[in-house]
């Protein structure tokens, strides 16, 4: 695992893919002419603000749980990593994307937010293989009890 992979993982590649799919959704919005989700300006704004707060909170908790200079050097299973194997990615997938979809107020963006899960699942396969190589059975055991993007409730 090189230092770039250790610090950034597959985040930059996934972000580019997510933005490209968002642009595609924006292009398809007038073509498909899907209805709005809620039709009230304030609803999307309020939900988006809450989603930003939750996203920032989970990112902060993640960085506190595993500082960037320690990534790839030890397997952290406490803090945010007790609930998510990928809390940084989960912050965007669970909170930010759905908040943005409700702000943009069209079903195409909600579909975009849902489709991010399989896209990111495929995106992080290589990253998880590197972590598995580095930490072996300890990582496999951790995967059995911790959700990838969703908290696993016991």
Reconstruct the topology from this structure.
Layout: H1 3-8, H2 11-32, H3 41-65, H4 87-104, H5 107-123, H6 125-135, H7 137-145
Q: Gist?
A:
The chain is an all-alpha fold. 70% of the residues lie in helices and 0% in strands. The mean pLDDT is 91.
Structural class: mainly alpha
Mass-distribution shape? elongated
Main sheet: strands, sense, barrel: none
What's the count of strands? Answer: 0
Number of helices: 7
Uncertain runs with pLDDT below 50, 5 residues or more? none
Helix content: over 70%
Computed over alpha carbons, the radius of gyration is 17 Å
Average pLDDT taken over every residue: 91
H/E order of the elements?
Answer: HHHHHHH
Q: What is the CA–CA distance across the termini?
A: 32 Å
Approximate strand percentage: under 5%
């Amino acid at each position: 695992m090189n230092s770039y992979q250790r610090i950034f993982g597959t985040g930059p590649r996934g972000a580019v893919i997510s933005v490209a799919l968002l642009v595609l959704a924006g292009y398809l919005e007038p073509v498909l002419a899907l209805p709005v989700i809620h039709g009230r300006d304030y609803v999307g704004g309020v939900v988006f603000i809450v989603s930003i707060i939750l996203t920032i909170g989970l990112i902060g908790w993640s960085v506190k749980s595993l500082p960037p200079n320690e990534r790839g050097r030890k397997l952290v299973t406490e803090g945010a990593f007790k609930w998510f194997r990928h809390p940084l990615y989960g912050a965007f997938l669970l909170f930010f994307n759905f908040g943005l979809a409700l702000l943009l107020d069209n079903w195409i963006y909600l579909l975009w937010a849902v489709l991010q899960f399989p896209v990111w699942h495929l995106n992080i396969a290589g990253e998880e293989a590197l972590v598995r190589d580095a930490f072996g059975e300890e990582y496999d055991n951790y995967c059995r009890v911790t959700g990838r993007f969703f908290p696993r409730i016991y």
